[in-house]
Amino acid sequence: MKQIILPGEKIADGKLRVSHTFTDGDSTYAAVLGFLDEDRFMPLEGPYQPRQDDVIVGIVIGVRSAGYEIDINTPYGAFVQSRDLRIRLQAGDIVMAQIYGGGKEEAKLTQVRRLPAGKIVHFQPMKIPRLIGKKSSMINLIKEGTGGEIIVGNNGYIWISENCNVPKALEALEIIQQKAHQSGLTDEIAALLK
Fold first, then answer.
1. Fewest CB atoms within 10 Å of the CB: 20, 27, 38, 127?
2. Does domain 55-114 have CATH number 2.40.50.140?
Protein backbone atom coordinates (compact mmCIF):
# COMPACT_ATOMS: atom_id res chain seq x y z
CA MET A 1 0.00 0.00 0.00
CA LYS A 2 1.30 3.44 -0.92
CA GLN A 3 1.70 6.04 1.80
CA ILE A 4 2.00 9.76 0.91
CA ILE A 5 5.07 11.37 2.50
CA LEU A 6 5.37 15.11 3.06
CA PRO A 7 8.71 16.99 3.02
CA GLY A 8 10.38 16.59 6.40
CA GLU A 9 8.66 13.32 7.28
CA LYS A 10 10.79 10.43 8.47
CA ILE A 11 10.97 7.62 5.93
CA ALA A 12 13.42 5.23 7.61
CA ASP A 13 15.51 4.50 10.65
CA GLY A 14 19.16 4.55 9.67
CA LYS A 15 21.01 6.57 7.06
CA LEU A 16 19.84 5.77 3.52
CA ARG A 17 21.44 7.12 0.35
CA VAL A 18 18.30 7.92 -1.62
CA SER A 19 17.81 10.92 -3.90
CA HIS A 20 15.71 13.80 -2.57
CA THR A 21 16.17 12.78 1.07
CA PHE A 22 18.35 13.98 3.94
CA THR A 23 19.63 12.46 7.16
CA ASP A 24 19.46 13.83 10.68
CA GLY A 25 21.01 11.75 13.42
CA ASP A 26 20.36 8.12 12.61
CA SER A 27 17.20 8.67 10.54
CA THR A 28 16.39 9.52 6.92
CA TYR A 29 13.76 12.12 5.98
CA ALA A 30 12.01 13.15 2.76
CA ALA A 31 13.22 16.43 1.24
CA VAL A 32 10.30 16.58 -1.26
CA LEU A 33 6.75 15.29 -1.59
CA GLY A 34 6.66 11.57 -2.38
CA PHE A 35 5.27 8.23 -1.33
CA LEU A 36 6.48 4.99 0.19
CA ASP A 37 5.80 1.94 -1.95
CA GLU A 38 6.96 -1.34 -0.43
CA ASP A 39 9.41 0.55 1.83
CA ARG A 40 10.92 2.40 -1.16
CA PHE A 41 10.73 6.21 -1.27
CA MET A 42 9.47 7.56 -4.61
CA PRO A 43 9.74 11.37 -4.96
CA LEU A 44 6.83 13.06 -6.75
CA GLU A 45 8.54 16.39 -7.30
CA GLY A 46 12.00 17.83 -7.53
CA PRO A 47 14.57 18.74 -10.17
CA TYR A 48 16.33 16.26 -12.42
CA GLN A 49 19.72 15.22 -11.06
CA PRO A 50 21.94 13.65 -13.76
CA ARG A 51 23.28 10.21 -12.89
CA GLN A 52 25.84 8.05 -14.64
CA ASP A 53 24.27 5.98 -17.46
CA ASP A 54 20.94 7.87 -17.49
CA VAL A 55 19.35 7.94 -20.94
CA ILE A 56 18.20 11.47 -21.73
CA VAL A 57 16.40 13.38 -24.45
CA GLY A 58 17.83 16.83 -25.13
CA ILE A 59 17.64 19.83 -27.44
CA VAL A 60 20.70 21.41 -29.06
CA ILE A 61 20.72 25.04 -27.91
CA GLY A 62 24.22 26.14 -28.86
CA VAL A 63 26.92 25.35 -31.38
CA ARG A 64 30.53 26.06 -30.39
CA SER A 65 33.73 25.31 -32.27
CA ALA A 66 34.52 22.47 -29.83
CA GLY A 67 31.03 20.99 -29.72
CA TYR A 68 27.40 21.44 -28.79
CA GLU A 69 25.46 22.72 -25.79
CA ILE A 70 22.45 20.55 -25.01
CA ASP A 71 19.43 21.46 -22.88
CA ILE A 72 18.79 18.41 -20.69
CA ASN A 73 16.40 20.02 -18.18
CA THR A 74 19.06 21.01 -15.63
CA PRO A 75 20.36 24.46 -14.68
CA TYR A 76 23.82 23.63 -16.09
CA GLY A 77 22.90 21.74 -19.26
CA ALA A 78 25.23 19.33 -21.01
CA PHE A 79 28.03 19.43 -23.55
CA VAL A 80 29.18 17.01 -26.22
CA GLN A 81 32.42 17.47 -28.09
CA SER A 82 32.38 17.50 -31.90
CA ARG A 83 35.24 15.00 -32.05
CA ASP A 84 33.07 12.45 -30.18
CA LEU A 85 30.35 12.56 -32.84
CA ARG A 86 30.04 11.14 -36.34
CA ILE A 87 27.27 13.58 -37.17
CA ARG A 88 26.93 17.35 -37.27
CA LEU A 89 24.23 18.94 -35.18
CA GLN A 90 22.55 22.30 -35.36
CA ALA A 91 20.51 24.40 -32.96
CA GLY A 92 17.04 22.96 -32.51
CA ASP A 93 18.01 19.33 -33.18
CA ILE A 94 16.49 16.80 -30.78
CA VAL A 95 18.93 14.17 -29.53
CA MET A 96 18.96 11.06 -27.41
CA ALA A 97 22.11 10.37 -25.38
CA GLN A 98 23.57 8.80 -22.28
CA ILE A 99 25.14 10.59 -19.31
CA TYR A 100 28.74 9.53 -18.70
CA GLY A 101 30.06 12.27 -16.48
CA GLY A 102 29.38 15.55 -14.83
CA GLY A 103 27.77 16.16 -11.52
CA LYS A 104 26.52 19.41 -10.13
CA GLU A 105 27.74 21.25 -13.21
CA GLU A 106 27.64 20.65 -16.96
CA ALA A 107 26.99 16.95 -17.71
CA LYS A 108 28.99 15.02 -20.31
CA LEU A 109 27.16 12.95 -22.91
CA THR A 110 27.99 9.87 -24.95
CA GLN A 111 26.17 7.75 -27.55
CA VAL A 112 24.49 10.85 -28.96
CA ARG A 113 22.09 10.32 -31.84
CA ARG A 114 19.80 12.75 -33.58
CA LEU A 115 16.09 11.94 -33.45
CA PRO A 116 13.75 12.61 -36.38
CA ALA A 117 11.23 15.43 -36.25
CA GLY A 118 8.71 14.94 -33.49
CA LYS A 119 7.14 16.56 -30.47
CA ILE A 120 9.02 17.20 -27.23
CA VAL A 121 6.98 17.07 -24.02
CA HIS A 122 8.14 18.07 -20.56
CA PHE A 123 7.23 15.56 -17.83
CA GLN A 124 8.05 15.81 -14.13
CA PRO A 125 11.35 13.90 -13.80
CA MET A 126 10.42 12.32 -10.47
CA LYS A 127 7.38 10.68 -12.08
CA ILE A 128 9.31 9.08 -14.95
CA PRO A 129 9.52 5.66 -13.19
CA ARG A 130 5.70 5.62 -13.00
CA LEU A 131 5.44 6.54 -16.68
CA ILE A 132 7.77 3.70 -17.66
CA GLY A 133 6.14 1.18 -15.31
CA LYS A 134 7.36 -2.20 -14.15
CA LYS A 135 9.29 -3.88 -16.98
CA SER A 136 8.28 -0.94 -19.25
CA SER A 137 4.61 -1.99 -19.05
CA MET A 138 3.07 1.51 -18.94
CA ILE A 139 5.14 3.09 -21.72
CA ASN A 140 4.65 0.01 -23.93
CA LEU A 141 0.89 0.27 -23.37
CA ILE A 142 0.97 3.91 -24.53
CA LYS A 143 3.13 3.10 -27.58
CA GLU A 144 0.78 0.31 -28.66
CA GLY A 145 -2.32 2.43 -28.02
CA THR A 146 -1.05 5.44 -29.97
CA GLY A 147 0.65 3.60 -32.82
CA GLY A 148 3.98 5.41 -32.70
CA GLU A 149 7.41 5.58 -31.15
CA ILE A 150 7.96 7.35 -27.83
CA ILE A 151 11.34 7.85 -26.16
CA VAL A 152 11.35 8.72 -22.47
CA GLY A 153 14.39 10.52 -21.08
CA ASN A 154 15.24 10.12 -17.40
CA ASN A 155 15.56 13.93 -17.42
CA GLY A 156 11.83 14.50 -18.00
CA TYR A 157 11.93 15.25 -21.74
CA ILE A 158 9.84 12.89 -23.85
CA TRP A 159 10.06 12.63 -27.64
CA ILE A 160 6.90 11.57 -29.49
CA SER A 161 7.18 10.56 -33.17
CA GLU A 162 5.09 12.31 -35.79
CA ASN A 163 3.29 9.07 -36.76
CA CYS A 164 1.97 8.73 -33.20
CA ASN A 165 -1.58 9.72 -32.21
CA VAL A 166 -0.12 12.77 -30.44
CA PRO A 167 -3.34 14.07 -28.80
CA LYS A 168 -4.06 10.63 -27.29
CA ALA A 169 -0.45 10.28 -26.10
CA LEU A 170 -0.55 13.73 -24.50
CA GLU A 171 -3.81 12.88 -22.74
CA ALA A 172 -2.30 9.68 -21.33
CA LEU A 173 0.85 11.51 -20.20
CA GLU A 174 -1.21 14.19 -18.44
CA ILE A 175 -3.27 11.59 -16.55
CA ILE A 176 -0.12 9.77 -15.43
CA GLN A 177 1.49 13.02 -14.31
CA GLN A 178 -1.59 13.95 -12.24
CA LYS A 179 -2.25 10.49 -10.77
CA ALA A 180 1.24 8.95 -10.49
CA HIS A 181 0.69 8.20 -6.80
CA GLN A 182 -2.67 6.44 -7.28
CA SER A 183 -3.30 2.75 -7.82
CA GLY A 184 -5.39 1.50 -10.76
CA LEU A 185 -3.62 3.86 -13.14
CA THR A 186 -2.68 1.18 -15.68
CA ASP A 187 -6.33 0.15 -16.06
CA GLU A 188 -7.36 3.80 -16.53
CA ILE A 189 -4.76 4.33 -19.26
CA ALA A 190 -5.70 1.05 -20.98
CA ALA A 191 -9.36 2.15 -21.05
CA LEU A 192 -8.41 5.57 -22.44
CA LEU A 193 -6.38 4.05 -25.28
CA LYS A 194 -9.05 1.54 -26.40
1. 38
2. yes
